[in-house]
Amino acid sequence: TSTSTSTVYRATALPKTDEEQWVHQELINNPRLALLRQPQLQATGASREQVVLALVHYLLHHVPALKTVYGGFVRDFVVRGDAARDIDTEIMDPVSGGPVTDPCVFHQVQALLDAEAQRLGLAPSDGIHQKGKALAFTYEHPEGRIEIDMTSTGADFGRNNGSSSS
Questions:
Q1: Of 5, 24, 34, 60, which shows the fewest CB atoms inside 10 Å?
Q2: Tens digit of each residue's pLDDT, the chain (166 residues)
């Protein structure tokens, strides 16, 4: 199942000011955003930055529970052209489109990404753990750790989320 790449950048209304128009044009013409929009991502190497790009591309095109990618990845990689420190995601219930009520959804996302990470040469993740209001898991890359943070608006990440505490 393919998800829409509009989850990375979606113009919710036509730009009204010159500044909004400039930002809109910059994002439309952004080469890094264009890579994420492509249905197939051509592997260009195994640097940490390339693996992070491949994982986000996989999330956008192959993970039905993904609602959006936001935060540092968008700011650092897409907008600034720098390496992203982590990948912040919002996960939804893939059936209802609402908040996640079954913790198995987070484990399914992790399992999908583990399979893709292994294809990219990484070991499976370290397991889901609590990170503030998010659930997170990490991959070890020779150039540095890759952390995936998952949230779900309205979801309760309390004691019964199936994660281990850290």
A1: 34
A2: 444 433 454 444 555 777 767 666 766 778 888 888 888 887 666 899 999 999 999 999 999 999 999 998 999 998 889 999 999 999 999 999 899 988 899 999 999 999 999 999 998 888 899 998 899 999 999 999 999 999 998 766 554 444 444 4
The pTM of this model reads 0.79
Q: Determine contact, residues 140/147, Cβ cutoff 8 Å.
A: no
DSSP reduced 3-state for 117: helix
Q: What are phi and psi of 65, to 5 degrees?
A: -80, -5
Tokens 């912040």 belong to residue: 88
- Chain centroid to CA 77: how far? 12
Pairing of strands 129-131, 66-70: unpaired
